[in-house]
Write a structure and sequence with these properties.
The chain is an alpha+beta fold. It is built from 11 helices and 10 strands. β7 and β8 form a beta hairpin. Bound molecules: 3,4-dihydroxyphenylalanine (DAH). 3,4-dihydroxyphenylalanine (DAH) binds next to β8, β9 and β10.
Length: about 350
C-alpha cells in the first residue's frame, strides 16, 4: 500500500506538471481525489484490514500524498490562470499610440461638381431643377420637339432604339423607345406638367451611337434650360447666359450669338464664348478664331409650345442645351472625354 501511495504521488505530480489547461487540471483532480472514483480513495479502501500500527503509518503517508497533490494542483492552477490572462491581454492589446486606420473618402465626379454649381446659379434665378427618363419615348425625344419621323435632323443623333411592347398594344414599333439623345424631351414633359409661366433646368445623361475618341463618348451629360413667360425675348437668353458664365468661370466672359438650326427653336442660335485659354487672340483650343462654341439655344418653336399645351399667342420662351461634359472639360482643361467614366482614381482624386 505504501508503494502504491508513493507511486500514485509521483505519477500525479508528473501529470499535473504536464497539464496545459485549467480544464485538464480539473480532470486530473477528479480522477485522483474524487470521493467515488478517485484513485487515492481506491487505495485507501484496504486500510480497514491493516493493523493499528500500519493504519497509522499508511494514514500519515496518505495525508502527506494528499497534501502534496493538493498543493501541486493549486500551484499549477495559479500558473495556468496567469498564463491565460497574459495570453488574453496580449491578444486584446491595443496600442493607443499607433496612428488610426485611414478611411478612404470618395469624391464627386467633376461633372457632378459643376452640375451642382450650375443648379445653384439657376435656382438663384428662380429655376426648378427637373429630372426626366433616360429611356425615352420616340415621341418626346423627337416628334414633340418638332422632329417628325423622316426629318433629316434625326440623322444628327444616331441613337439606340429599344423595341418594347406595352400590354394590349399590337405593334412593337408604335411604342418605340430610345435612349434619349438629348435632355430636350423634358421640355415638353415639363410644360405639360407645370404649364406657363415656368423656369426649369434639367441636368442628365444622354446617349448617342458614336465612334469613341478623345472628344466623343456614347454617354455624356447635358443641362437643358427652359424659360416660358409673357414677352420673353432673345435679350432674356443673353442676360441669363451672362449670369451663368460669370458664375461658372468667376469672371466676365464675352459672348456672341450666331444663327444655328434646331427644329425645336425658331430662331435658333449657337452661343460662343471668348476663348478663355488665349483671351481671344487665337490658339489651338479655339482653332485660331478666338471663340469657342458653348451652347445652342433659341426661342421655343410654337409647335413645341403646342405639344406642351401652351398657347403660343400668349406665351413665348427660350431654351438652351448646355453641353455639360464639354463645359467641364473646358473649365478644368481635361483633354480626353473618356476620363470621366474610366473609373480611374488617379483622375478622380484630382477633384476631391
Ligand atoms: N438638344 C440639342 C442637342 O442635343 C441641343 C439644343 C439646341 C437644346 C437648342 C436646346 C436648344 O434647348 O434650344 O443637340
Amino acid at each position: 500500500m505504501i508503494n502504491k501511495l508513493n507511486e500514485l504521488k509521483s505519477k500525479a505530480v508528473e501529470s499535473i506538471e504536464k497539464a496545459k489547461t485549467v480544464e485538464a487540471l480539473e480532470k486530473i483532480d477528479n480522477t485522483l481525489m474524487g470521493r467515488k472514483v478517485g484513485k487515492l480513495n481506491d487505495i485507501l479502501k484496504g486500510i480497514k484490514d491493516l493493523s493499528a500500527k500500519d493504519k497509522a503509518l499508511v494514514g500519515k503517508l496518505a495525508n502527506e500524498v494528499k497534501t502534496v497533490i493538493s498543493e501541486k494542483l493549486e500551484e499549477k492552477k495559479k500558473e495556468l490562470n496567469k498564463k491565460t490572462l497574459n495570453d488574453n491581454l496580449e491578444k486584446d492589446f491595443i496600442d493607443v499610440t499607433l496612428p488610426g486606420k485611414k478611411i478612404d473618402q470618395g469624391s464627386l465626379n467633376p461633372i457632378s461638381i459643376v452640375q451642382y454649381e450650375l443648379e445653384d446659379i439657376f435656382k438663384s434665378m428662380g429655376f426648378m431643377v427637373l429630372d426626366g427618363p433616360e429611356l425615352e419615348s420616340d415621341y418626346y425625344n423627337f416628334e414633340g420637339l418638332n422632329i417628325p419621323e423622316h426629318h433629316p435632323a434625326r440623322d444628327m443623333t444616331d441613337t439606340f432604339y429599344i423595341k418594347s411592347k406595352v400590354k394590349g398594344q399590337k405593334s412593337k414599333v408604335e411604342n418605340k423607345q430610345v435612349l434619349r439623345t438629348h435632355t430636350s424631351p423634358v421640355q415638353v414633359r415639363a410644360m405639360l406638367k407645370y404649364g406657363a409661366p415656368m423656369r426649369a433646368v434639367v441636368p442628365g445623361r444622354v446617349f448617342r451611337n458614336e465612334a469613341m475618341d478623345a472628344s466623343h463618348e456614347h454617354t455624356f451629360n447635358q443641362l437643358e434650360g427652359l424659360m416660358i413667360d409673357k414677352d420673353i425675348s432673345i435679350a432674356n437668353i443673353i442676360a441669363v447666359m451672362n449670369k451663368l458664365l460669370t458664375g461658372i468661370f468667376k469672371k466676365d466672359v464675352k459672348t456672341r450669338l450666331r444663327p444655328g438650326f434646331f427644329p425645336f427653336v425658331e430662331p435658333g442660335f449657337e452661343l460662343d464664348i471668348n476663348c478663355l485659354i488665349c483671351g481671344g487672340k487665337g490658339c489651338s483650343v479655339c482653332k485660331q478664331t478666338g471663340w469657342v462654341e458653348l451652347l445652342p439655344c433659341g426661342m421655343v418653336h410654337p409647335n413645341v409650345l403646342k405639344a406642351g399645351g401652351i398657347n403660343s399667342d400668349e406665351y413665348s420662351g427660350f431654351a438652351f442645351g448646355l453641353g455639360l461634359t464639354r463645359l467641364v472639360m473646358m473649365k478644368y482643361g481635361i483633354d480626353d472625354i473618356r476620363h470621366f467614366a474610366s473609373g480611374d482614381l488617379r483622375f478622380l482624386k484630382q477633384f476631391s
